[in-house]
């Protein structure tokens, strides 16, 4: 099983913990570049574009696209990645219903992080 995990930089701390729990079940997880300084990425338009584009092949290689959306927040980069995943026919799962109405029709399932992690215990 391969998962692409997306979230806004403001949720990286929680996201990194969830990613590690999923990886513990032998799942391949592509995720945000936690090692990069988010402020530095945002300050450099070329780097920001490159980082976004680098995720596309990872999404291509994933079966599921999971977005951590606390309180439904979905930023611009996650919106781009989710729309790309949808266009590629990936299963779109989110932690909470997105506040952005245009995204909602693309979502196949709403599944909180605990429930999402639990599905891998059986694999």
What does this protein structure show overall?
42% of the residues lie in helices and 16% in strands. The longest helix is centred in the middle third of the chain and has 16 residues, at 45-60. The protein contains 5 helices and 5 strands, in the order E-H-E-H-H-E-H-E-E-H. Helix 4 links the parallel strand 3 and strand 4 (91-94). It is of the alpha/beta class and 123 residues long. The chain has a single domain, classed as Rossmann fold, CATH 3.40.50. It has helices at residues 12-23, 38-43, 45-60, 76-87, 113-118; strands at 2-7, 28-30, 64-68, 91-94, 109-110. It is globular.
Characteristic key phrases:
123 residues; alpha/beta; 5-stranded parallel β-sheet; 42% helix; Rossmann fold
How do the helices and strands line up, and which of them pair or pack?
Layout: E1 2-7, H1 12-23, E2 28-30, H2 38-43, H3 45-60, E3 64-68, H4 76-87, E4 91-94, E5 109-110, H5 113-118
CATH class placement: Alpha Beta
Q: Name the shape in a single word.
A: globular
Give Rg in angstroms.
14 Å
CATH fold name:
Rossmann fold
Q: What is the helix/strand order?
A: EHEHHEHEEH
Give a brief description.
The chain has 123 residues and is of the alpha/beta class.
């Amino acid at each position: 099983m391969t998962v692409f995990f997306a979230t806004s930089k403001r949720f990286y701390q929680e996201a990194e913990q969830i990613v590690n729990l999923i990886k513990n079940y032998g799942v391949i997880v592509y995720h945000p570049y936690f090692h990069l300084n988010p402020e530095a990425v945002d300050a450099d338009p070329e780097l920001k574009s490159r980082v976004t584009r680098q995720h596309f092949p990872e999404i291509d290689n994933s079966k599921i696209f999971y977005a951590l959306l606390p309180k439904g927040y979905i930023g611009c980069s996650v919106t781009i990645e989710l729309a790309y995943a949808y266009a590629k026919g990936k299963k779109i799962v989110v932690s909470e219903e997105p506040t952005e109405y245009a995204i909602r029709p693309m979502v196949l399932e709403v599944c909180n992080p605990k429930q999402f992690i639990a599905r891998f215990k059986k694999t």
